[in-house]
Every structure is written in C-alpha cells, then in structure tokens.
C-alpha cells in the first residue's frame, strides 16, 4: 500500500473519516514528506502517537481564510517558518531580495512572508483566539530570547512575545512535541506547560523556577552592548542537557520569558525510529504542475547519519540549535533506508550524501560527555584538539563500505562537509584513503574559511598550518593511488576580526595557489551565533576584548572582491582596497600583482568624455 501524505484539505480529512484534527502544522515551506524537513518529522511523529495531524503549507497571510482551511484543531497549532530562517531565505547578506526559493514550488519567491513565524502565529491567533499556539523550527529556536536582528540593525525581544504564541520549542523538537501533545491531550492547559525541557514560556512571576539564572533585563540589554555580550555568553554556554539551568529574561511590567534546559540527547534507538517512519520521501503531488520543489533534488537520495556538532565554529548556529553532543543512527537503520532508496524508480545508483552537520562526526567527542556533558569553557577542536578528544572513523568507514557494496549502488558521495582537522588528527589513514578512492567525485569541498590566524582564532578554527598539512596529505594520498583530484576551499569574507589587511592576505593566498573561487560567503550575521554577537557588539564575548568589525557595505564589498580579484567587475573595489591599505605593491604587471594599474585615458577618449559631459550639462 502506498503511503499517504498527511491531510492538506477537508477532502483529505473526509477520505480518512476525520471531522476534526488534533493538531495542525503550519509551515513556510512547501509540503515535502521527507525526514530532511522538520515539519515532515513532527507530523509523522505525532501521527505515530495516534494523533490526527494536518498540514497547512505556505498559507496566504493576507487574511485568516487560509488558516481556517482545515477547521479548528482540537489541541493546537504547531508553527514553523520552514527549514531555514525566512529572512535568510528572502535576502542576501547585502539585504537584496533573492531570486529563487528552493523550498517553494517551482523555486518561486514570495510564497511566505518576512518573519514568517511571527506572521503565521498572529494570523492563527486571529483565526482561533483560544487555540494553543506552539512555535518551533530554526527561526524560532534561534530567536528564543532577546537577539540581534541584522535586517533591522537592532536588538529584538524574544520571538515568543512578538508572535503572541503560547509556547516555543527550541532545538530539533521531537521529545518536546510528544510531551506537549500528551499534556494537552490529558486536559492540561497550555499555560500549565512550564516544566517541559527544550521549551520557552512566558509568565508573570518566577517563584516556581528552580535554580534558574537571572539574565539582564531586555531594557538593560538594549542600552548596553557589553551587557548584551555578557547575556549572550550565558545563553551560549547553557546549551548542554547535563549541566544547563533555566534562564530567566525579565521584561517590563513584571513579565518574564523562561528558557528551560534542553532535553537529553536521543539514543541511537530513538533516532533510528524517527528516520524509519513511513515518509513518502517526496513533495506533495499538488506541486507537480508547478515544477516540483527544488530542495528535494539533493536530499531525496541522501542519508542522514548523525546530528549535533562539536566543531564549535563561531559563525555557525548548530551549537545553539542542535547542540554539541553528536547523536548517531545505527548502521542497520541507515542500510534499511538505503535499501528502500534503491527500490525508488528515480534512483540511478548514486547516493548523494551520507552525513549530518559534519559528515565524519559519528561519535561523541569524548566519554566524559556521556556522563558530564560538554565543557562550558573549552572547545573540542580549536585552536588545538582537546586532550580528551577521541578521533575514530572506523564506524563511519564500515557504514560506507556496506553502502557502496550494496546491490544497485554505483557510488556513495560525501557532500555534507568533512571536518578536515578532525580527519587529520586520526592516526589511522584508512578512512582518509578510502575517502579519496571511493567518495570524492574529482574534487573535495572543504572549509578552511580563512588564512589569517588572527581571524581563524575569532572563527574558532584551527591555525592555517593545519589546513596546509591536510592539503599536502590529501594530494599525497591521491598521488599514491594515481588519482588526480582537487580541493575546493571555501572562504568567508569580512568575518568579525578581519580587516582589509587580513582580506589582502587571503587574496594573496588565493593568488599563490592559482585558485579562482566562484563562490565566496560574505559573513551573514544571523541570530544565535557567537560571530553575530561579535558583529553587533564589536566585542569578543569570550574575553570581552574589543574586536574589529567591517560593517559598512562598501568595506564588506571590498573584502569580498579581494578574494575574487580576477573578476573584472571587481577591479575598482580591489583597487580601492589596495590603495586604502597601503598595498600599492600589489598593483602592477609583476607576477605577484593582484591587478594591473589603471589605464591612463588617451586624448581621443578624453575628448569624447568631455563632449558627453557638455551635452549632459546643456540638457540639464
């Protein structure tokens, strides 16, 4: 029997004999029933617990009509902006509107509003005033307490208050959602749900909060960047389920927002059960005539093997959302899903990815984490590996061997990112060698991010020499097996701590290795990251020391242009940057020059230009 999608209309409900749903999930993404989509996981999970669940995807937010499409839910609304932040989805770092939305049918833009979590929640409240509303997903998770908003260039209060929702789920959410559903189904009021780990709620007093830590008030935070940095650091070091405490953020008129500690990590058995639920692994048929949903392309024939990341990069929100404790699926579970994938008529023999936030993290960083959680004041990998770090790729290697030897599988790729320093620290080269021989398609993408050690330290990445050592070993292994494969390094421009001199240093490195990067990520200050706190406060919250931040659009454009100095469109920006930094030595015809000198206009061109100017004056 073909697996059904969850109901999206009254007709779907009638076919199931349902008059009313227990829960309605509202999402900013098109409805894709695949475990890479959070809404699909939550919907299937509630369904597996016996609840009647429906989906309203990308509703028209101009009025409340679309929010009433499935009627009034018996127990509540779960609301998510979608797989990625709606503002990031809509705008580039230059705050220009993007042209395509991979999570909408046909890649069409404009299918969701800005700040979708807030808009959807408010409209659901208008539609049914007394129905409980629970926010979830990445957008809400990273805005659970006061946060810097790059698009408005100000600190905003908890999204729970702006949205008028009753409760907020942060992190991946499965455990919280089930507990919330069972509590509401038992007759408890949504206002009584102050005890669920991994949730945030609002209240009038905090006498009931056990061992809570009082953060600075919202008014104090918006008045002082130093206070904001200190408050953020308390939040940032309070994400571990073994040692976290409730955080209390006061607002005016005796209002409080309380963040409960996160839930315990999933066991392997629990994670297996989630990913083996009966997903259709496709977008809803209603999108077929619209061109489908582009986001399915890369993930349909990919396998999630783990969650969590102990990499700790300053510019990444994984620490704040999924946590630092790695949770892995069993080899048997992944093989079972792969076997199902092979039977798909669209499968051509290529598994696009086997990984997670970091592909080669398949185990916890150390045994200590199992009992005591992660260290609050130490990092696992940077600037150097912790003495307790356990580096082992054998479990991942066995999994990959079984997958590539499976009948019907031609090639297994790894595209979700390899942590190169962790790989380098492994004394056993067997995984590194098999990675090069079997899981790279001509080029391996890695993320050294920068070459300036000063900037790398702010990024919480290893010194540049570590990447150089990895690069040399990668080429040596390929040479050993007679393979010609390349490294494609990713770099970030204008990260906090990087000035024009650092950007020029990176440009010189790109020149020296003969690389012409097609993609450069200009640092994007999104909520929940250490680097965003640095960007806003111009302080390193770990030390409270001042830090240089490129904030003007022009300087950010110069830093980005320097990395792509070969692009003729970037000539004037690169020229300005080199002049401003006093590095005219890089302007010339010699082999170390980044650009050539400006051409002196000849007399004929000067006359033509003067004539044009005179004509413009006469017209004016």
Automatic annotation (TrEMBL):
Gene3D superfamilies: tm_1862 like domain (3.80.30.20). [4Fe-4S] cluster binds at residues 309, 313, 316. Residues 295-566 form the Radical SAM core domain. SMART domains: Elp3. Keywords: 4Fe-4S, Iron, Iron-sulfur, Metal-binding, S-adenosyl-L-methionine. Residues 590-620 are annotated as: Disordered. Pfam families: DUF3362, Radical_SAM, Radical_SAM_N. GO terms for molecular function: 4 iron, 4 sulfur cluster binding; catalytic activity; iron ion binding. This is Radical SAM domain protein. It comes from Natranaerobius thermophilus (strain ATCC BAA-1301 / DSM 18059 / JW/NM-WN-LF). The lineage of its organism: Bacteria, Bacillati, Bacillota, Clostridia, Natranaerobiales.
